[in-house]
Every structure is written in C-alpha cells, then in structure tokens.
N-acetyltransferase domain-containing protein (Heterostelium pallidum), 95 residues
Amino acid sequence: MSQYKDKVVHNKDKNFSLTLENGEVAHLDYTRRLNEFDFYHTFVPVSARGKGIAEILADSAMNYIRETESRVILSCSYLSDRWLPKNPAYAIKSG
C-alpha cells in the first residue's frame, strides 16, 4: 500500500482522504476549532480493509498536526486504540 502514501489529500476543515484504485474513497474526518483538530471518524471501504489504508491516513493527518504545531483530540477509536499505541511519539500532542 506504499503507493498511496503520497496520494492523501487534505480537504481543509473537513478530512484527509485517499481515492483508491477502484475509485472508492477512504477518509479520516475531523472538526476544527482554531488550532485544535478533533479526529472523530476513520472510514475505509470494505474492499480495502486490513491493507494499511487507515494507517496511511492517520500518518498523513498526524504529520500535518506536527508540521502546524496544532493540538489534536482523538475521538476516533481506531486512532486512540490502535494507531496511537503503535506510534507513542505522537502522544504528547494528544488531547
């Protein structure tokens, strides 16, 4: 799935999305208040689940958070329960 790493699109004030080869779209949705992002939902189409797509979206989103020195709230259970434990260096920005 590394072919997708550079294809994540940040749809400002809405989500990070990734259009898959079959045309389906995976996305990580958020709400934003000033410099704080609440990531509340990750969706990956059934055909692409278990292939690392959610991780690619999360990595892109969290890199954006780091680059912009923003704060983040992880309301999405995938991010808080699965992604963050594998990426503890990001915990300092977790709200």
